[in-house]
Amino acid sequence: MKLSVFISFVFLLTLTGVAQAEMRIWKAVGGFETTAAFVSFDAGVVTLRKENGEEIRVPLGRLHPGERAEVIRLSSQKTIGAMPPGPVQKPSGRREITWHSLEGQEPWPESLRDHELDALKSVGRTWKHAESRYFIFHYQSLGYAKKVSRMADFMYPYIAADIPEFNDRFEKKSHIIVVRNRVEWLQFLRNSGSFHEWSGAFVRGDAMFLYDMDNNEANASILAHEMSHLVLNRFFIHRPPRWLNEGLAEWYGNTGYETFKGQKVDVEDGMGQLADPYDISTLFEMEQYPTEMEEINRYYATSKQVVGMLILKWDHSTFVKFLQSITVNGTSVREPLEEIYGFSSLEEVQAAFDAFLR
Asked: Which of 81, 116, 343, 351 has its CA 20 to 30 A from that of 170?
């Protein structure tokens, strides 16, 4: 009777290729128990294998507190930080949260520099850590961090499914570090020397850094843009030119966020509308960001419009070939502009851009 009640709140899942683990008694809240071996822990769900080979899944919160600690111990040896196997499917609506706390763990990204980690630990309250289906999170305040998690787990498959010709180069998950507020964010930036103080977020390697702006739309806009950088970094072997990198983040940040909200996306909305763009030759030659905020906004807007032109005035597969040539094969921009798009000069690109901006 006890075993049948226990099974009533789990469902069966067949897995293969999992090594034998030690059998033990697992206790659930309410006094129910079963004998099984630990298999895996992913997205808040524990998979156990019984002595007859049958596998069952149970939410971590249904287990006795002592069993939860054992799950965390065992999963830290097996699966923390591993990307889920198999192809991704493009999401069509808001993804349910797959967040679970990493109690007793401090899985900071290996790419984090010592002075950055010191700067983070000197800011505010104690840091906590969690894992979702596609990311590892480091946070101080739970509320905004969970919102970040929900959008992050939506944006990864949204972008990955849009460029199926690319391969994710990493087996480990990327990290998202969420600072509690602007005061502590500025303190972190000054102590670490990591980025411009005008930035609301930034991505370096496998980690994204951001803070809660206490403004839903501002938070969502920044998060969607930087999330695009974080995801695309996983697929690019060679870093694209700065204008292309920012234009892509603006493109996917906008379309991805609208889809996440459940809105019907019109990819042409706002495209071809820009009053004061940079000219193409200036944009392509810029190796540094502008220093004035007005010029920064102009730079981002022009970059997005150029990306939009390359996607909309041809087709998506043509743009993907262009992107592969630069980020996978390592060619300069001018070569695929000529071979794929047929532009023999930047003057021809400028003429096409002028025609695009109506």
From this structure: 116
Mind listing the pLDDT tens digit for each residue in 243-296?
999 999 999 988 888 888 888 888 888 888 898 999 999 999 998 889 888 999
Q: What is the pLDDT of residues 135-155, one digit of tens each?
A: 999 999 888 999 899 989 999
Digit-coded pLDDT (tens) for 28-53: 887 788 899 888 776 678 888 888 88
User: CA end-to-end span of the chain, whole Å?
Assistant: 72
Task: Give the 3-state secondary structure of residue 165.
Answer: coil
Residues 144 and 70 in one domain: no
Asked whether residue 320 carries a pLDDT value surpassing 80, the answer given is yes
**Domain match, 108 and 168 both:** yes
CB 277 within 8 A of CB 302: yes
CA distances, 249 to each of 224, 226, 244, 301, 303 (Å): 8, 7, 9, 11, 10
**Would you state the pLDDT for residue 254?**
86
Query: Do 230 and 114 reside in the same domain of the chain?
Result: yes
Q: How many Å apart are CA 281 and CA 345, to the nearest integer?
A: 10
Distance CA 206, CA 170 (A): 9
List the structure tokens of 91: 């999401």
Domain boundary (58, 78, 98) is at 78
Q: How far is CA 304 from CA 139, 259, 294, 311, 325, in A?
A: 31, 18, 16, 11, 19
In whole angstroms, how far apart are CA 131 and each of 2, 82, 268? 32, 10, 36
Q: CA 58, CA 44: separation in Å to the nearest integer?
A: 9
Structural domain harbouring 18: 2-78
**Count of structural domains, the chain:** 3
Of 234, 130, 124, 125, which Cα lies nearest the Cα of 177?
A: 130
